[in-house]
Amino acid sequence: MPLDTLKRPLRDLRISVTDRCNFRCPYCMPAEVFGERYKFLSKAQMLSFEEITRLASVFVGLGVTKLRITGGEPLVRADLEKLIAMLAGIPGVEDMAMTTNGYILAGHAQPLKDAGLSRVTVSLDSLDEKIFGELNGLGHSVDRVLEGIQAANDAGLTPIKVNSVVVRGVNDHTVVDLARWCKERGYIARFIEFMDVGSLNGWDESQVVPAREILDRINEELPIEPATPNYTGEVAQRWRYTDGDGEMGVIASVTAPFCGDCTRARLSTDGKLYTCLFGTDGADLMGPMRDGATDTELTAIIDGVWNRREDRYSELRASLRRALSVTAKDSGPRKVEMYKIGG
Ligand code: SAM
Ligand code: SF4
Ligand code: SF4
Predict the structure, then answer these.
(1) Who contacts 296 (Cβ-Cβ below 8 Å, separation ≥6)?
(2) Most buried one in 13, 66, 142, 163, CB count within 10 A?
(3) Pocket mutation for ligand 3, best pick of 6, 10, 264, 340 (most atoms within 8 Å of C-beta)
(4) Measuring from atom 4 of ligand 2, which residue has the nearest CA?
(5) Cα dist. 72→101, 208, 216 in Å?
(6) φ, ψ at 264 (rounded to 5°)
(7) Measuring from each residue's beta carbon to the nearest atom of ligand 2, which residues come in under 6 Å?
(8) Average pLDDT in the 17-41 region?
(9) Which ligand 2 atom sits closest to the C-alpha of 339?
(10) What is the number of the ligand closest to the CA of 280?
(11) How would you classify the pairing of strands 247-251 and 237-241?
(12) Residue 343's pLDDT is what?
């Protein structure tokens, strides 16, 4: 099993199944960039279900036990349940989750469960209709997402996690409402610091609400205490409510980086392997596969990439941002966008 240069094994694979999305969240796919004329990948440029499944089984051979299906919005890819069933059939996959914006989840929840999906994480930035409409970029109503979450719960895609990106001055005053709503229903709210992924979302550090501040706000109304991590490398810091009823978490990629335990690889829709959320280049797997590479050859490519991996962007954020902003001016390397690799 490969270890990277910081002795981190390869355990998780995030698979982006589409670069398209039915939302235009300003922190991810701002509407002014992703307008009607934006050219998304054609079908031929996307990995087929057979290709995704083949690559996933090669990754499992290298130590991956957890899969996360993401996007873009994974549910806009047609027949997704078929892919889920194919991936669920790979021996060695212990857990398969999906991150979705939940907007069309209600009609898919039971078929996804039947196909072998273990659980879902639904992104929901606020329960407030106006703020939610602003943060999905299209004025979509929150009700559809709430129906999706309910359907996922009914189908047993549990435990349900609810992800919320917190942006200062936009939704930071609604975190307690969302935490309470989740607590009352047995869902795990997870508040994410606004990250400088990609280069299109106009990230500005002043819009980041540090996890400590989010925790303080919640603790004032719903007292919490730290809980032990479920496993090494868990992205969220876990906190439990002191009344014994439920837990929540924060993902503090900006103020408390967790690169030391990062065991995640990302496969983009067009078949590139990224070893960091903030990577600039992906290693092409689609090309070699379509040129006839055997599983052994694909294994060797991935193994080589992982062995050379040095990524720890969040720990080095300040200096790397400076370096990237200099090269970007000369059309140098740019960070991959979140909608391509799925978070
Ligand atoms: N469309 C699906 C969704 O929104 O759940 C899956 C893909 S989305 C890229 C995955 C996760 O990344 C979502 O929870 C989203 O909120 C988060 N995300 C996107 N851009 C982000 C940013 N700039 N900072 C922090 N989280 C971000
Ligand atoms: Fe779409 Fe998810 Fe990005 Fe929002 S965060 S634009 S829902 S891919
Ligand atoms: Fe992993 Fe890169 Fe995020 Fe660090 S910055 S935790 S290496 S994805």
Answers:
(1) none
(2) 13
(3) 264
(4) 25
(5) 9, 23, 32
(6) -100, 135
(7) 21, 23-25, 28-29, 71-73, 101, 123, 339
(8) 95
(9) 8
(10) 3
(11) antiparallel
(12) 80
* Helical packing angle, 211-221 and 175-185, nearest 10°: 60
Distance 55 CA to ligand 3 centre (A): 22
Q: What's the fold here for domain 12-341?
A: TIM Barrel (3.20.20)
pLDDT digits (tens, 9 = 90+) for 220-268: 999 999 999 888 878 899 999 999 999 999 999 999 988 999 999 999 9
CA 324/CA 184 separation, integer angstroms: 44
- For residue 264, the SS3 value is strand
Predicted TM-score (pTM) of the model is: 0.95
Q: Counting atoms of ligand 2 from 1, which one is nearest the CA of 72?
A: 8
- Closest atom, ligand 1, to C-alpha of 16: 7
Given a cut of 80, is residue 338 above it in pLDDT?
yes
CA–centroid distance, residue 296 to ligand 1 (Å): 33
Checking if the pLDDT of 281 tops 80, the result is yes
Q: Domain residue spans in the chain? A: 12-341
